[in-house]
Amino acid sequence: MLTHQHGFARRAGEASCMIRRWPTSLFLFAALLLLAAFVTPVAAVIVAMPPAQALAAFAHNGADALRVSLVASAGATLAATLLGVPGGYALSRLPAKLRAAAVFLLALPLAFPPVASGLMLIYALGINSPVGGWLAMHGVTVADSLLGVAIAEFFVSGSFVAIAATAAFGALDPMYADAARTLGASEWRIFARVALPAAAGSIGAGIAFAWLRAIGEYGATSIVAFHPTSLPVALYVALSASGVREALALCYGFVLLAAVVLAAAWILRRGVVQ
Question: Is-above-0.90 flag for pTM?
Answer without folding.
Answer: no
